[in-house]
Amino acid sequence: MRVEILTIGDELLLGFTIDTNAAHLARELATVGVEVARRGTVGDAAGEIAAAVREALDRTGAVITTGGLGPTADDLTKPAIAALFRRRMRLDGEYLEALRRRWRDRFGGEMPESNRQQAMIPEGATIVPNRHGSAPGIWLEDERARWVVMLPGVPRELRGMTGDELLPRLRERARSATEATELPVVRSLTLRTTGIGESKLADLLGDDLGRGFSGGTLAYLPAFEGTDLRLTVRGLPDGAAVARLEEAAARIRARLGAYVYGQDGGDLAAVVLDRCRARRLQVAAGESCTGGLFAARLTAISGSSDVVLGGVVAYANDVKERLLGVPAELIAAHGAVSEEVARAMASGARARLGADIGVGITGIAGPGGGSAEKPVGTVWTAMDLAGVVQARRAVYVGDREEIRQRAAQGALDMIRRALMD
User: Fold this and answer.
1) For residue 6, pLDDT beyond 60
2) By C-alpha distance, which of 307, 271, 297, 270 is closest to 419?
3) Which element (helix H / strand E) includes 67?
4) Integer angstrom CA distances of residue 143 from 85, 170, 174, 177, 275
5) SS3 breakdown of the chain: % helix, strand, coil, rounded to 5?
6) Threshold 0.70, pTM exceeds
7) Please, what are the domains in the chain?
8) What's the per-residue H, E or C state across 116-176?
9) pLDDT confidence of residue 177
10) Rounded (5°) CA angle 314-312-359
């Protein structure tokens, strides 16, 4: 089964609201073997809504919409789609009374008259119960078995109704259309890599893995943390799909080695914490250009206090000298952004805070401050592990925030690699 998702609302088009509904629906639909063929967004205009739904129905015959089911004048989804199906809107007295009872029970008063609109239902439609809010979902089908499911745009309501109502209905619909004992599913698995670019990854994977694998597809998803590899299998029963994904993931891991640090939602900071914890090692940081982002990545994870002792945001040179013990003559001779200063910051953080591992990060995040010798994006990262210091230089691309985030990720990866079994 293939469907299209249409999210509705001016706030989505203007960028004031992030569309989390389409992503949630796509993930959940995959669990029951429903493939999302296309996703789109339109504003709160009846003509735009109708046109988008009409085009989607012509392509796949199945559409799920979110948004535009509320009680205000800009909630036009129901009448727009009803007109497309040539259905009149009618008042559902039973649902109206249920709305009034709900209002009295929850708010102790009479329902505002504007909420009456939520009880207006297209003729011939099926109400999809909403136990999480006041707006009912609507299932509307034509004589050609093409259908539209209209769901609320409030994320909490959308998520609840998807699990309560939508998935069971689609699962039953798919089951009635096939004699198979196990329904086919869409399954994905993500391998997380860092410290390697997208094109280099493709080279390492080669033609046999870089363009997909037997029975599945491979997508490259670059971000500041690194490049995620999304493996997807469609059309197999759940057990077979999982086995195919795991087999392909094992081959990719073997090919990429240490560049792979996790799977699915795995966080590199969590990997570092686990490896430090297993060896009873504690970490301290001296950060300049990252401004505490390295420590923030670690301390964002619950329970990190047994590993992270603390850190110093040593942005000014005199702070590097006073709090981390970096010699002034070292800064004068080599500059604050240098291997020598990064090493001194790492060792100073380890010694001053009594840690096993000290990390020092200094660089030029931009947009100004660069030179031919040290362009914007130049970052020196050092790690002092029990008195053994290593350092590396990187030139990161991106704006100021991206460079800072990439530098923090690079420091985490330095620890991970040093502690690999």
Assistant:
1) yes
2) 271
3) none
4) 10, 19, 19, 17, 60
5) 45, 25, 30
6) yes
7) 2-176 (3.40.980.10), 184-263 (3.30.70.2860), 268-418 (3.90.950.20)
8) HHHHEEECCCEEECCCCCCCCEEEEECCCCCEEEEECCCHHHHHHHHHHHHHHHHHHHHHH
9) 65
10) 95
- DSSP class per residue in 34-59: -EEEEEEEE-S-HHHHHHHHHHHHHH
Pick the closest to residue 40 from 13, 61, 2, 62 (CA basis).
Answer: 13
Contacts of residue 416, Cβ cutoff 8 Å, sequence gap at least 6: 261, 268, 271, 272, 275
Beta strand 184-193 pairing with 226-237: antiparallel
The residue written with tokens 């990064």 in the block is 342
Which candidate, 268, 278, 275, 277, places its Cα nearest to that of 300? 268
Check: CB of residue 39 under 8 Å from CB of residue 211.
no
> 421 or 27, which is more confident?
27
pLDDT digits (tens, 9 = 90+) for 352-411: 999 999 999 999 999 999 999 999 999 999 999 999 999 999 999 999 999 999 999 999
For the chain, report the end-to-end CA distance as a whole number of angstroms.
Answer: 45
Name the residue type at position 78: K
Is the pLDDT at 182 greater than 80, yes or no? Answer: no
Radius of gyration of the chain (CA): 28
State the CB neighbour count (10 A cutoff) for residue 333. 11
Distance (Å, rounded) from C-alpha 361 to C-alpha 322? 17
* Token reading at 384: 């002092």
For 303-360, the pLDDT digits (tens) are 999 999 999 999 999 999 999 999 999 999 999 999 999 999 999 999 999 999 999 9
Phi, then psi, of 230 in degrees rounded to 5 = -95, 115
Closest C-alpha among 155, 8, 138 to residue 78: 138
* pLDDT score, position 150: 97
Give the length of the chain: 421
* 363 touches 315 (CB < 8 A): no
Do the beta carbons of residue 225 and residue 194 sit within 8 Å?
A: yes
